[in-house]
Amino acid sequence: MVSPSVVWFRDDLRIADNPALRAAVDRGEPIICLYVLEGDADGMRELGGAAKWWLHHSLDSLGERLRERGGALVLRRGRAADIVPAVVADASAGAVFWNRRYGGAEREIDAGIKTALRDDGVEVASFAASVLFEPWTVQTGSGTPYSVFTPFWRACQDLPAPRAPLPAPREVHAPSGAPDSDDLDAWGLLPTKPDWAGGLREAWEPGEPAALRRLKGFLYDDLGDYDRSRDEPAGEATSHLSPYLRWGEVSPYQVWHETVKNRGTGAHAASASRFLSEIGWREFACHTLYHFPDLATKNWRSGFDAFPWPRLNRAHLEAWQQGRTGVALVDAGMRELWHSGAMHNRVRMVTASYLIKNLMIDWRLGEQWFWDTLVDADGASNPFNWQWVAGSGADAAPYFRIFNPELQRKKFDAHDEYIRRWAPDHLDGDAPEPLVDLGDTRRQALAAYEDVKRAR
């Protein structure tokens, strides 16, 4: 009797180096490839608009890749706790495989489904696929999570090297009577009225094939300049891999081993090490989320709860969102974000610091805006990095570190190439009037941080 396997895809929208898919192929039975759009059920966080755009195209690409191998992607929308067991029962499936995820709500959902299926006699197995090192394997000598990146990354590197990536299966046979699937277009993930995604289409090509091309292009063409030029927003020295990693169209194992293989010597080797440490920073964020599931809503450092946020100035928040602050680098970054769904990392830090420490607006409001507008909005990295800038998070920037956007512009965009592209009005004399005085607001922020110190 045929006993199909179910592979539940989540943030791993690829066929190469996909341990769950590999386990199903090795089991030897027909495979039901399932994706569930969970929405905000059971504590899950609703995807932002830019993320929905990416997800639509990534699922379309994954479906094509599976069809090429004899498979099919089944789409369902709703609570995974209802849908996954229903699909298993309807198909008389004998096994379910998925790759692990690390958010608190996600882990609870997965654990409940695993228990229910096993009680019904179904084989269930989960695998590591989105992090190089499982969160419970990296601990301090006293058995606690690391709160500082450098010793965390050193501890990771003392562990056995990450496993080699798994090859893509040549065939993924679907059962003869595959379950019904929703129509992807009917999910309404793409913007229509208005269609604001023109800049996203111009900047990005979602999907596993594009991810692998981007990885190869970066390692062969750009890696040598990474250490020297990574902080220059007008350049092309960064990898542009973050959305592909967020959606699992490329795995950290593939990135790790391909980078090591192309490490080279001298400056090239230094760039490779620097780039791998950025992969480590992503790991650190994932581990922090695992141990602190409320990362997007609560201060990691509870002492920061005493920060005296003033009453919200909505006009200032909207000006920041729209790139109308009157500060060239901030406005350029926010306009790049709205147009392309992305922003250079150096500029992300500057725009976040300006919102928090010059406009004195709660980091959670900035994090929510990035969540809605970034194609790489990640449940770990996005809040983790906002808390880092705010000073409330793990390995946080010192409270007195307040990015001066004008000095950052002179240092990292000395010829105004980035400003010329995204905020030319600042060069033509038509820039908005500055919302606040940078010096005055810096002093106010420092005074507020002193209040936090005294409250401890």
UniProtKB/TrEMBL annotation:
Which coenzymes or cofactors are required?
FAD
Q: Which domain of life is it from?
A: Bacteria
Q: Is Flavoprotein found in the keyword set?
A: yes
**Keyword Glycoprotein among UniProt keywords:** no
Q: Which InterPro entries match?
A: Crypto/Photolyase_FAD-like_sf, Crypto/Photolyase_N_sf, Cryptochr/Photolyase_FAD-bd, Cryptochrome/DNA_photolyase_1, DNA_photolyase_N, Rossmann-like_a/b/a_fold
Q: Name one GO molecular function term.
A: deoxyribodipyrimidine photo-lyase activity
UniProt-listed Pfam families:
DNA_photolyase, FAD_binding_7
Q: What is this protein called?
A: Deoxyribodipyrimidine photo-lyase
